[in-house]
Design goal:
With about 400 residues, this protein is of the alpha/beta class. The protein contains 20 helices and five strands.
Length: about 400
């Protein structure tokens, strides 16, 4: 005889082969506690006790669960306990859930489920905020949006101020440009302040444009908003730097703060990043190129986000793919150390730099691609020269005279 155990939100329910309830364990007041254990795929003492009771009366006990079989290793020694992901008896319980639960307990099913899962959701939200991964992900996403917005707004500010201060267009530092306009605004104030003394830009005192105080006020207000974005960006970068040093010191050494944060944000957490193979890490952020490669057969991408690594971006184009593989490998090792062991290994950066030097020395010049036709051989056929191809064309163009053809 066989017994089948199905896990529900209200407890463990055991059925026999005739779909009759033969035993049970209900969570009752400890419903939230047991639901958390079930979600974490833990084996509870109550479930083990239920299996033990069933084994006294049945030859086999079949458990429908999504837990790993290794969780039940101690029970498998008996040879009469089996684990399956799906059983017909479990499907029967789900199809008749309300009827079965109502026969076992008097609780209001909808109200109880709503209350328990609300508590679980609240706990999860609180736990997610505590983890540093979430802070890193949100901060780097905010930084990306600020950079995008400030890039557009500074262009608008420069266009606005060009008629008044055309010489400042030579100033390439956007943050300094916005600060000068925000603090001094008028031409006279900038000249008197000597703020441009350490730059290559100087204002011509003879140049003048008639502009009212009200116009200068609105420009100053806009410039202050733009400059505040740059200040916020600097604050976020400092925060990311400190967080990555704290959460992922190995990745900080290998990839730097910003790249590490972007990789963690793209994979939605350090642990998720650590589970990826290095070949995937190499092309994270190049999804469009990957799908284009799969769809059209174009060359696959050599790198994604890790192109921002200074060792790759500053290298010659013909070694970037090889460097990307080396960097991705070290990033993967660093992420696994940070996520699972927590050991700090200062040798990772040294090993990476040594490997980069080896690759660069081994490939000082671009390699010429081999001709596939030359490698494949002529397969018994000689390649026709230009002369013969020309003759063939000529022969094809020859008009047939009457009598030389038949229908």
């Amino acid at each position: 005889m066989k017994a089948f155990i199905t896990t529900t939100s209200f407890g463990f329910i055991a059925l026999d082969e005739e779909f009759s309830i033969v035993d049970k364990f209900l969570f009752d007041e400890r419903q939230v506690e047991f639901l958390e254990k079930v979600e974490k795929r833990e084996l509870t003492d109550e479930e083990v006790e239920l299996i033990g009771r069933l084994l006294e009366d049945y030859d086999e006990v079949i458990i429908e669960t999504n837990k790993s079989k290794s969780v039940y290793d101690a029970l498998f020694d008996q040879g009469n306990v089996f684990v399956e992901n799906f059983t017909g008896h479990g499907d029967y319980v789900r199809a008749n859930f309300d009827e079965i639960i109502s026969s076992l307990t008097d609780v209001d099913i909808g109200k109880s489920l709503n209350s328990s899962y609300n508590i679980l959701a609240s706990r999860k939200i609180r736990e997610s905020v505590k983890t540093n991964d979430v802070m890193i992900v949100e901060t780097i996403n905010s930084l990306d949006e600020i950079e995008e917005s400030s890039g557009k707004l500074i262009e608008r500010l420069r266009e606005w101020c060009t008629p008044i201060l055309p010489e400042l267009d030579k100033l390439h530092n956007h943050e300094l440009y916005s600060r000068i306009i925000a603090e001094y605004t008028s031409r006279e104030n900038i000249i008197e302040s000597n703020v441009l003394d350490n730059t290559h830009v100087s204002l011509n005192p003879d140049y003048s444009v008639d502009i009212g105080e009200a116009d200068l006020m609105i420009i100053r207000s806009f410039a202050k908003s733009v400059y505040s974005l740059y200040e916020t960006r600097n604050t976020l970068e400092e925060f990311i730097d400190s967080k990555i040093r704290e959460v992922a010191p190995n990745m900080y050494d290998v990839a730097g703060a910003n790249l590490s944060a972007k990789l963690i944000a793209h994979t939605n957490g350090l642990e998720n990043l650590a589970k990826l193979p290095s070949s995937t890490v190499q092309i994270i952020g190049a999804e469009k190129a990957i799908f284009r490669h799969l769809k059209t057969g174009e060359n696959p991408p050599k790198h994604g986000l890790i192109f921002q690594h200074p060792l790759i971006r500053g290298s010659n184009w013909w070694v970037r793919g090889k460097l990307a593989r080396a960097v991705a490998g070290k990033i993967t090792i660093a992420a696994r150390k940070d996520a699972f062991s927590g050991d700090y290994d200062p040798g990772l950066r040294v090993e990476l730099e040594e490997r980069i030097d080896e690759i660069k020395k081994a490939h000082p010049f671009p390699e010429r691609k081999k001709n596939k036709k030359d490698d494949s051989g002529d397969n018994g056929r000689k390649k026709k020269g230009k002369k013969e191809r020309g003759k063939k064309k000529k022969r094809n163009k020859k008009k047939l005279r009457k009598g030389e053809y038949t229908y």
